[in-house]
């Protein structure tokens, strides 16, 4: 416990430095520098591409399987309801306040501490790769996705996101679809034209009521929500186009491509997916890391939110200190105790298998 306490103190000190540096998505260069400096001071060689930094354990052996420890250092912008300085790491009543403290700074520094714990250990059954990455908050292409081809082959991953240190063994994917319904312009005072809004209403009602027959055991049903709609230019003109956007949370029962095909077949509108790359992800319930967590009393669940797990093609477990309910909230914070216990639990679960 004493050892974990010192690890937590060092991790919290690093987190305070990171909070004090603005690191909005695509602007993470300074937090990248901070993490690089931290590793340099520890004498740990690392590689960097843009704002992504990764390192391997000292006794890395290409003949052994490899565990990826990943979390992100970019943040969203602070919302208008902040009462505190989002870049002032205030410690008060057992909490550390600051933008990115909960999402996902606490997870990031806890995984860094975990990597340091195993870094110099010889004769491990697994290698470790630590990857601190960018652009997670915008699902950008210059974050984890950019460096995956340059990492050693990964057997499974722990992705640090605030889950109260419970195990998210599955995560919904994300498919954002833009739809265009076309009609014919006309004067609103006369019975002419073809109203694109009315045509879109049929499709929106279909989306609202359609149920995919296969339901995931861990993630439940696919959820489709119309979130944006735009049409018309002035009150007396029948609109000839109506565009609307659908947020689709996919599950392991269907590929994103399959879901897109269902939409194209079911809608009258033109259907265009922004991307199919944010896939649902999961890890088998009998995987050694999940079994190790269960033996420590951790629970498993399916997560409705999307993270960098969506970019991995290997089994992955989403787990970290903090609470996702605090993410992106005003006066964001993490309990200091959560970081200490997070490091302790990461180490406990990994020591059972490595």
UniProtKB/TrEMBL annotation:
<dbReference type="Pfam" id="PF07687">
    <property type="entry name" value="M20_dimer"/>
</dbReference>
<dbReference type="GO" id="GO:0006526">
    <property type="term" value="P:L-arginine biosynthetic process"/>
</dbReference>
<keyword id="KW-0479">Metal-binding</keyword>
<protein>
    <submittedName>
        <fullName>M20 family metallo-hydrolase</fullName>
    </submittedName>
</protein>
<keyword id="KW-0378">Hydrolase</keyword>
<keyword id="KW-0170">Cobalt</keyword>
<dbReference type="Pfam" id="PF01546">
    <property type="entry name" value="Peptidase_M20"/>
</dbReference>
<feature type="domain" description="Peptidase M20 dimerisation">
    <location>
        <begin position="169"/>
        <end position="260"/>
    </location>
</feature>
<dbReference type="InterPro" id="IPR011650">
    <property type="entry name" value="Peptidase_M20_dimer"/>
</dbReference>
<dbReference type="InterPro" id="IPR002933">
    <property type="entry name" value="Peptidase_M20"/>
</dbReference>
<keyword id="KW-0862">Zinc</keyword>
<dbReference type="InterPro" id="IPR036264">
    <property type="entry name" value="Bact_exopeptidase_dim_dom"/>
</dbReference>
<dbReference type="InterPro" id="IPR050072">
    <property type="entry name" value="Peptidase_M20A"/>
</dbReference>
<dbReference type="GO" id="GO:0008777">
    <property type="term" value="F:acetylornithine deacetylase activity"/>
</dbReference>
<dbReference type="GO" id="GO:0046872">
    <property type="term" value="F:metal ion binding"/>
</dbReference>
<dbReference type="InterPro" id="IPR001261">
    <property type="entry name" value="ArgE/DapE_CS"/>
</dbReference>
